Amino acid sequence: MSAVKNKILFFISIIFCLSENAVAQQDDSLMLRKIYNEILVNGKAYDWLSDLTKTVGGRLSGSPQAAEAVKWTEKKMKEAGADSVWLQEVKVPHWVRGEKEEGTIIRSDGKKEEVPVCALGMSVATPVAGITAKVIEVHDFDELKKLGEEKVKGKIVFYNHPFDQTFINTFEAYGNAGKYRWAGASEAARYGAVASITRSMSSSDNDYPHTGSMGYNDSLPKIPCAAVSTNGANLLSKILKEDSETKFFLKQTCHMLDSVLSYNVVGAIKGNEFPDEIIVVGGHLDSWDLGKGAHDDGAGVVQSIEVLRTFKSLGIKPKRTIHAVAFMNEENGLMGGKKYAELAEKNKDKNIVALESDAGGFPPLGFGLNMTDDKKKKIQVWKPLFLPYNLWNFEGEGDGADISPMTRKGLPGIGLHVESQRYFEIHHAKTDVIENVNKRELHLGAAAMTSLIYLLSRYGL
Amino acid sequence: MSAVKNKILFFISIIFCLSENAVAQQDDSLMLRKIYNEILVNGKAYDWLSDLTKTVGGRLSGSPQAAEAVKWTEKKMKEAGADSVWLQEVKVPHWVRGEKEEGTIIRSDGKKEEVPVCALGMSVATPVAGITAKVIEVHDFDELKKLGEEKVKGKIVFYNHPFDQTFINTFEAYGNAGKYRWAGASEAARYGAVASITRSMSSSDNDYPHTGSMGYNDSLPKIPCAAVSTNGANLLSKILKEDSETKFFLKQTCHMLDSVLSYNVVGAIKGNEFPDEIIVVGGHLDSWDLGKGAHDDGAGVVQSIEVLRTFKSLGIKPKRTIHAVAFMNEENGLMGGKKYAELAEKNKDKNIVALESDAGGFPPLGFGLNMTDDKKKKIQVWKPLFLPYNLWNFEGEGDGADISPMTRKGLPGIGLHVESQRYFEIHHAKTDVIENVNKRELHLGAAAMTSLIYLLSRYGL
What is the DSSP letter of B154? Predict the structure, then answer.
């Protein structure tokens, strides 16, 4: 009998030794399972994204579609059960593509081959008749500099910098190639080029030009710049090797209009214990105009609304306040992100952390943590809760552009880190449509976000 | 000076303290980077898969396409640089779909709605005129049993067992639903049903019927069985709720022909230190006939050939012998897997481990390890080498069907474990085509396999 007694005492002592932490972890584990079940079975994110992309479509800042998307989001946040929904006024640039884009390779014998091109966002137009000039191909700025004015003047500079396929995370290849899209026109203009064309920033060989923002150096002439599809770039490069006298004809009609009054959309659930502490979760509502902005970043918007819906649907009353934010104008100005940060400062809002989803609706791998090491550790101890859902990487630091005006000032920032292999096939191209989004992958992202927001709302940071 | 001397001595001692293991790990880490670079930049797997699926197409065992695929694989293994390539004779069943498949919902008022159906593999045909009968819907075998002969006799049993969306790994949902496809016909026949139709084993609502093997219980009447698309199943279920007198018309012309002589294809690189120890890497060459067998399992075949190509291309001389095997007849018989095991036993081959890729050409998450704990640990210590490539999960146990005749007898088995969210949208359906394969994802799988085969060839198991 004494042995049995000992055993009983031993087990009782074990039970009492269970730290509060262990009990909390078990609670949390059960809650995460509930959140995942709710979203995988009843989630609305995919249907919402389908509706947004099909009924509203692409929604570049300043466009009628962007205005419609604001109304759409306001309505959906209310339907999702937000305690309150409001708009934040924000002035956004209004660049339009115009009606015509044309790119043609012209061999020295006059033979022509059309290739798919698109104006880069914020570029100026060509003259109405277009520009025809010889092409000089470079792979990087060093090559351009070595060629100098003598070889570049009067020509179209063709930046043919492909994605480095050896990066496992395709965002790194994107980062590497980015400067030729952003600064290529002005650098070419420095040596007297009349236009620049850039190999599309895509991980695959395809026939779609991929747009994206560029910026001018105000001290240099503003020349038109366009992206050519990766297949088009391969063709042009091949032809130039055979015939260095090859010319290119570029025509584009894009131009800037007056700024437009637009809006961030914010939906809130009020915290019941620390209502002043605010947790931000968001994505951006604007998108490029060529596709429908499904992955970029309709996904982040509907996932953020799904966070609200899931809290309400499961009857979770968060201790801290949650703001789901659909930011406006990430693609060509970041005015929405700046405005949210400015208003938060003005209103003395106590934002404690911000999570952004802007890497596409792909299977989540973990979270990028842009914060001090002690705060990182606080989140990293939750990793075992996420492993059953295939989130394992809590070591990266990438967060999101829209929250950067706050995180640059010290707010802890988090980015949903996803499997990136397919993103840059469709990014900023005609192919960013709902048909290329997988429902379960999108919903797994929403569930991961909701789970992390739940933990942050329970424990703070 | 003495402080400097001390420091130097300290560093020298550190260098000497580096265990052989640490040095080896660094070597291995560099070699894995080389393997990944080679495959991500120069990999041929995707182009091969494109060629196989487009010029040969779907290749069900016994079909002319399967015979063509054998020749295709033999040629590619030689091109990849295998030291030797040979065929293993294997008799395979030859089931054909025939020319006509038709499924129609007939309401009691005579109104008809056609739904997409396909015969399940190995099913018998309907009579030439088809079968028309009332439909009885069940969700599982318990329901069927409760209904009994009284309610089932003379009817068509409709198994409407959807995928459980709460599983994170969709293979678990597939596993759960599998028995209704495999055994549904005989269980329905037990109670006098005249045919059975099964909800397609798919994770999404779509318009494609998904085929797959079924088997008859020889003691019961053999009735025809078909799969209906998930959207078709949803529609039928809805109509049955409104009108329980609804009938279904099923017609299919599938039938068995005589067995056919076919082949496994084996390509080998001989080990230069322990040539008798054989490491098997493979996938299956046969596929269902509705699609082109791109993910299932052209992917595994071209990845296995890529292992050979990469060893040769990088000049890696493995210590142990590698067999890349394209198994025949996984889908409806497993005769190739059985034959390879039988010949290995007969020839007293010393196979030490087998790795199979048969879960689609999706981003790899890790490896399933079906082996004793001590051997598992030997592989699990390599996990840090794979983390930079997003392989983190070495805890599962799933390997592959083709290697199961060997692993059931104790051979350590490994399965490439991949992100499964999209697989069962296209699995065994018309949509299993190259357009749904991502080149980088396929190549990352090949690189993971080559890396593991490299480590196994260096260290054994």
Answer: T
